[in-house]
Design brief:
The complex is a heterodimer of chains A (419) and B (335). By secondary structure, chain A is α/β, with parallel strands linked by helices. Chain A folds into two domains: 177 residues, Periplasmic binding protein-like II (D-Maltodextrin-Binding Protein, domain 2, 3-Layer(aba) Sandwich); 192 residues, 3-Layer(aba) Sandwich (D-Maltodextrin-Binding Protein, domain 2). Chain A is built from 18 helices and eleven strands. Chain B has 335 residues and is mainly α. Chain B has two domains: 54 residues; 236 residues, MetI-like (MetI-like fold). Chain B is built from 16 helices and no strands. Classes of the chains: A alpha/beta (419), B mainly alpha (335).
Chain lengths: 419, 335
């Protein structure tokens, strides 16, 4: 009896403690909520998509430096870039948005349409130095919702050994016909021609767009003859064995790994692979992605925007503006863009980078020719179009339908999705 | 702690009260009885209070972590949420519009068929192979425990590890499976990138992962079958197949039912393996309700919360139907 009673007492105590802790937890969430919001003015929160940087990294040190210059302390949280959109939407719903949010550029229009972001005119962030083609990704109906921290884009890396073995002169590749001829020569030597990523996510659309735009197609008409020509190009590559079938499942990272293994001549990839290219163990070069009839194709811009989410206490914007300006100032941007392996968003930064690393020159010209995915006032229509675009790419490359019919389906689906 | 104290002392008082009430005659007795009555009702009330106090943490927990999320998901699926109304509220109530949109989506039929195929084929193979292995391991032989432990490996591995490994092995160009097939003289199969194979590939991976679960449950079920039954059957001249058919299988029926039921619920909601291996593609060829719901809600730059929640709810309903079938089967067995 006694043991039973004491057992019961222990159980009761346990349950009571549980209830108490639950209550306490509920209370503590509330206090945490208000502190990260408006009440504690000395701490400013920053969210970024750079989980690869820890507290000892140059990036976090720069954040702290900018914080102390503005007289506040910084509480930084890093998220995986794919998580950041939903995290921010939830935070905004709960009224606990960070003071400064660094977010992938095609997401800016989504967050802006959710009413989550302030415009640069509200926060007095100066965007005049930024290249207009880069800023366009953050502009919707005449308002600007952030400032790019830097930019990246796509170009073709090539393996010098394989090209010289196949007798291909990279400078001869100026349009699709010469690129196809080069791929055929590489294939004749028993090597793979090219890797890219045609995966069924935004990454697949990002990689397809240089060819899509290079053919002269426009995102508002996915089934145009130019669009079909671009998809035909990719489909033929896979069908003729110039590109491995695994591109359908490859991310940009896995397609890079195939190139780095040394038996593929070309890889469509981004600035961020430069450090890895140096480690690849074979000499490499870079050419811009050719347009169908010669010249450089416009590649989509990648890279993040520094934004200021809406706060209930608008007095915080003044300090947030100082932080944003500090992070994107020429001197700081050079070092940030170097660590991220990005190209600067302003002419000043680009000139400094070009003189420090001449190898960046092809990237700088690629960024200058690049085009924002959400530009042309597509804004939140872009995600819906992009989803249909990558679906069409997947369906043509896997052989489930012809490029023409895949794109026609995509166009009608995109039309009805946009409404 | 404070809540329980009065109950315990109350019980003691109650015992004392009835004890004094028994020998006392007349008015004293009546008075004692009314006193005892009021004490009893007071005690009953405090006992009830204590019961509720004990129940409260669990109720609060269930409400906060089960009922509320389900309610929110239902609410999401019945309103037309845009990113703006998700943040600022005021999404208009649209009834079943999200469900109609989802059902009329060209991906719906594919996703439904894939979900059913994925679940049923996975279950069938997992159960049959798991049963065969369980029977095999029930006969004690050297190394049996070691081998049995090895069979648990798929279960112990984090899903991201096993799914990534499977997707390497099934790679069209450099995968070990195609390499092996090449030796047997079979040309390369585009396991993950061909619309006709992608679903089969994720099913194969899922079967491999699910076998240990079936093995463990069925093996423990077999252990519970008295050996005397098998011995008696053997004396009567039953072979091993007859023993399995007439003794093991019928006696395992309750364990089999719960194994299949749990397997069904686990398989219906499988997401990681498919997402890591094929992202539900190419196009929708390996999309199930679980991956479709995720794609709608999170897999796009512009989240579509309403349709995503609607697909999620359809999945919940499917699991619920499976649960009801199980309860029905169990009742019939009990009767």
């Amino acid at each position: 009896m006694r043991t039973k009673q004491s057992a019961r007492r222990v159980l009761g105590a346990g349950l009571a403690t549980l209830a108490l802790t639950a209550g306490a937890a509920a209370c503590s969430t509330n206090t945490a909520t208000s502190s990260s919001g408006a009440s504690s003015s000395g701490t400013y929160t920053v969210w970024d998509p750079y989980p690869q940087f820890d507290n000892s990294s140059a990036w976090v040190q720069l954040l702290d430096k900018c914080g102390s210059a503005a007289g506040v302390s910084i509480k930084r949280t890093a998220f995986d870039t794919t998580d950041l959109t939903s995290k921010e939407l939830l935070a905004a719903q709960q009224g606990v948005s960070p003071d400064v949010l660094i977010v992938d550029n095609p997401v800016v229009s989504t967050l802006a349409s959710a009413g989550v972001l302030t415009t640069t005119s509200q926060t007095h962030v100066d965007t005049s130095a930024v290249e207009p083609n880069l800023l366009a990704a953050g502009q919707i109906s005449g308002s600007t919702y952030g400032i790019p921290i830097g930019a990246n884009t796509l170009a073709l890396y090539y393996n010098k050994n394989l090209l010289s073995a196949a007798g291909v002169n990279p400078s001869s590749i100026t349009n699709w016909a010469t690129l196809n001829a080069a791929l055929a020569k590489v294939k004749a030597t028993g090597k793979k021609g090219i890797t890219f990523s045609a995966i069924g996510t935004e990454e697949g659309s990002f990689q397809f767009e240089p060819w899509f735009w290079g053919a002269g197609a426009n995102l508002t008409d996915l089934s145009s003859a130019q669009a079909v020509a671009a998809l035909n190009l990719w489909t033929t590559w896979v069908k003729d064995g110039y590109a491995p079938n695994s591109v359908l499942n490859d991310t940009q990272t896995t397609s890079w790994e195939e190139f780095a293994a040394g038996s593929t001549a070309f890889s469509e990839n981004g600035t961020w692979q430069l450090a890895n290219a140096a480690k690849a163990g074979f000499p490499y070069g870079i050419i811009n992605i050719p347009a169908e009839n010669g010249g450089s194709a416009p590649a989509p811009t990648g890279g993040e925007f520094v934004t200021v989410p809406v706060q209930s206490n608008t007095a915080r914007y003044a300090t947030s503006e100082k932080l944003v300006t500090c992070l994107t100032s020429a001197a700081n941007a050079v070092s940030t863009d170097t660590t991220l392996s990005y190209v600067g968003a302003t002419t000043a930064v680009q000139t400094q980078q070009a003189s420090a690393t001449p190898a960046l020159q092809p990237w700088i010209s690629a960024v200058q020719a690049a085009k924002g995915r959400t530009s042309d006032n597509l804004g939140v229509k872009y995600p819906k179009i992009s989803q249909q675009l990558w679906t069409a790419v997947q369906s043509a490359l896997s052989g489930s339908s012809s490029p023409q019919s895949a794109l026609s389906t995509a166009q009608s689906a995109a039309q009805s999705a946009i409404g | 702690m404070k809540d329980t104290a009065p109950t315990l002392s109350g019980l003691v008082r109650d015992e004392a009260g009835t004890a004094t009430a028994v020998p006392a005659p007349g008015r004293v007795q009546r008075r004692a009885r009314t006193a005892a009555d009021s004490a009893r009702s007071r005690n009953r009330r405090s006992a009830q209070f204590a019961a509720w106090a004990f129940l409260a943490p669990l109720t609060v927990y269930l409400l906060a972590f089960y009922a509320y999320p389900l309610y929110r998901n239902l609410d999401l699926s019945l309103r037309n949420y845009t990113v703006f109304s998700f943040v600022h509220g005021g999404a208009p109530f649209t009834g079943l519009a999200n469900y109609t949109a989802v059902i009329h989506d060209p991906a719906f039929a594919t996703a439904l068929i894939n979900t059913l195929l994925f679940t049923l084929v996975s279950l069938l193979f997992q159960f049959v192979i798991g049963m065969a292995l369980a029977v095999f391991f029930a006969q004690h032989f050297p190394l049996s425990p070691t081998l049995r432990a090895l069979f648990l490996v798929p279960w112990l591995l984090p899903l991201i590890v096993s799914a990534s490994t499977w997707s390497w092995m099934l790679d069209s160009e450099s995968g070990v499976v195609n390499y092996g097939l090449h030796f047997v003289g079979i040309g390369p199969v585009d396991w993950l990138t061909s619309p006709s194979w992608s679903l089969a590939s994720v099913i194969i991976a899922n079967i491999w992962i699910g076998i240990p679960f079936n093995l463990v449950l069925l093996y423990s079920g077999i252990q519970a079958i008295p050996t005397s039954l098998n011995e008696a059957a053997a004396l009567d001249g039953a072979g091993s197949w007859t023993k399995f058919r007439k003794i093991t299988f019928p006696l395992l029926r309750p364990v089999s039912a719960i194994t299949l039921m749990l397997g069904m619920v686990y398989t219906l909601k499988v997401f990681d393996i498919i997402w890591i291996m094929t992202k539900g593609g190419p196009v929708n060829s390996s999309t199930t309700f679980a991956t479709w719901s995720y794609r709608l809600g999170f897999g796009n730059l512009l989240p579509e919360f309403g349709p995503g929640a609607a697909v999620g709810n359809l999945l919940v309903i499917m699991a619920l139907i499976a649960g009801l079938i199980y309860i029905r089967v169990q009742r019939r067995q009990a009767a």
